[in-house]
Design a protein that fits this description.
Elements: H1 4-24, H2 30-34, H3 43-46, E1 54-59, E2 68-74, E3 82-87, E4 99-102, E5 104-109, E6 114-122, E7 130-136, E8 145-148, E9 157-162, H4 169-183, E10 190-192, H5 203-213, H6 216-219, E11 222-224, E12 231-235, E13 243-247, H7 251-254, E14 270-274, E15 277-281, H8 288-300, E16 305-309, H9 324-337, E17 341-344, E18 350-356, E19 374-376, E20 380-382, E21 386-390, E22 406-410, E23 415-422, E24 425-432, E25 437-446, E26 449-455
Parallel strand pairs: 9-10, 10-11, 15-16, 16-17, 17-21
Antiparallel strand pairs: 1-2, 2-6, 3-4, 3-7, 5-6, 7-8, 9-23, 12-13, 14-15, 18-21, 18-22, 19-20, 20-26, 23-24, 24-25, 25-26
Helix pairs in contact: 4-5, 8-9
The chain binds fe (ii) ion.
Length: about 450
């Protein structure tokens, strides 16, 4: 690895070299001019933290009507990180009523160097209210950014769901996340269903994730659960070839997600009640049985809509992939408690199901519909069960494995999804990277009856 100092010198030397060549070389001396090939900027230079906050991220807490969590990064020189916040106002004098909250810090040594990550949770906030906040050390400050707390009741809202970003995050995922924001700028949160990056401990890739989302990450809170690519491979001891997988050291410093799941899975398994929807995030990488037990209680207790997200799909969309143990373990629980929708990633294709119940045998080609499934006309379907979605937002693509239960599917198509919940109606749309509508449907919850699935994008 090239040291930061050395690469900085290299960069300056290259710049001086270019200036010299521009000034001194005769115009016809093309060979001499082109002999200096472009040099890639060292990621350690690009991602070097300073005392100025960067990688600022809002995370939803378990009490989104009265609190919000903020995390950010600086260099090691920052000793007293703080958040200032105030009720939002039209004019700039809102700062006169600002409050200050101290942050907590932890060091993170990465493959590129050492940084400090800071976290603060604002509590006692008013529901359904706009606030402004900034983070800093008293001298170096971020800009004032806005967020809005949730309502305490089941009011309409939208959110955006992304499958894997994972690869070429800066060059390709940028346009997807930015078009999603253009499409749903008032979204309550962005939900990331794992594999946000490709190499769990790559500081540069986490930096790309923040570059791509830019200010969006600091104005719309995140819900995120880890995929297999957020699990780092570790050696048991230096003298052994034996390895195991462990959550990336970046995960908990980068986000400040709820800790209401099993203790060993804090910030990777949790639930959040948001305006009439219970959103459950599961960590499909590890301790799946433990989560099954926890999930039973969390779903039994839920009222209103129930949406679950995890990375590995219960019904795979790509060739040669299947997760039968996870399906056998979790799908009966979803059926028992009436989970409405499951949002997944991992397969680098798009597939959105019909209403489905366990047992389902998609790999045997059987149509996996429930006993109560009845088709009424071309577009109207009455059925029991859950809608399962696999999606992808980055550029890595696998081949689709078409199955009868798929109501919509795609390959070679990065997508973002906007979901809008209004009372007993949930409207869903999947859009391409250019914002083109690709798939849509509506779910209706009905008292004492199975959900109604209405295809709104044609049969
Ligand atoms: Fe994955």
């Amino acid at each position: 690895m090239i040291s930061i100092q050395r690469s900085g010198v290299t960069k300056i030397a290259a710049l001086v070299g270019l200036m010299v060549s521009a000034r001194c070389l005769p115009a016809h001396d093309h060979d001499a001019h082109t002999a200096t090939a472009p040099v890639a900027v060292d990621p350690a230079v690009l991602e070097k933290p300073t005392a100025m906050p960067d990688r600022i991220c809002l995370s939803l807490t378990a009490e989104p009507a009265t609190s919000i969590a903020i995390s950010w990064r600086t260099d090691a020189s920052v000793l007293k990180p703080v958040v200032e916040f105030a009720l939002a106002a039209d004019g700039p004098r809102f700062v006169e009523d600002k409050q200050t909250v101290a942050g907590t810090s932890q060091s993170l040594t990465t493959d590129l160097g050492t940084a400090k990550y800071h976290e603060a949770t604002l509590v006692g906030l008013a529901a359904k209210t706009k606030y402004l906040y900034r983070v800093g050390d008293g001298v170096n400050w971020s800009e004032w950014s806005e967020f809005t707390t949730a309502a305490t009741t089941a009011e309409p809202f939208s959110f955006v769901y992304f499958g894997d970003a994972q690869n070429d995050i800066k060059s390709h995922w940028s346009r997807v996340v930015r078009n999603a924001f253009r499409d749903a700028p008032r979204a309550a949160f962005f939900l990331h269903a794992g594999d946000l990056i490709n190499r769990a401990e790559s500081d540069a890739e986490w930096g790309q994730w923040f570059y791509a989302g830019g200010f969006i990450h600091r104005t719309l809170p995140a819900i995120a659960i880890p995929g297999n690519h957020e699990m780092a491979r570790r050696v048991v001891d230096p003298n052994s070839d034996e390895t195991f997988r462990e959550l990336s050291h970046h995960w908990r410093p980068t986000f400040a997600l709820p800790t209401n799941g099993p203790e060993s899975l804090h910030e990777t398994c949790f639930f959040i009640d948001y305006q009439g929807v219970r959103i459950v995030g599961l960590n499909s990488n590890e301790q799946q049985e433990l989560q099954a037990t926890w999930l039973e209680d969390v779903l039994a207790d839920a009222k209103g809509w129930k949406i679950v997200t995890h990375h590995h799909p219960l019904h795979s969309a790509s060739k040669g992939r299947d997760n039968p143990e996870l399906r056998d373990l979790w799908q009966p629980i979803y059926d028992k408690h009436g989970v409405d929708l499951v949002l997944q990633g991992h397969d680098h294709t798009y597939a959105r199901s019909d209403l489905m119940r366990y047992p389902s045998k998609p790999n045997n080609g059987r149509v996996p519909v429930g006993e109560s499934n009845v088709t009424e006309g071309a577009n109207l379907r009455v059925a029991g069960g859950t809608v399962y979605v696999v999606s992808v937002s980055g550029p890595k693509m696998y081949d689709l494995d078409p199955k009868p239960y798929m109501r919509s599917a795609a390959e070679n198509t990065p997508l973002y999804q906007v979901l809008t919940v209004e009372g007993d109606r949930l409207r869903y749309k999947a859009c391409t990277a250019t914002g083109r509508l690709y798939d849509s449907f509506e779910l209706r919850r009905r008292d004492g009856q199975a959900n109604l699935l209405i295809e709104t994008n044609g049969p």
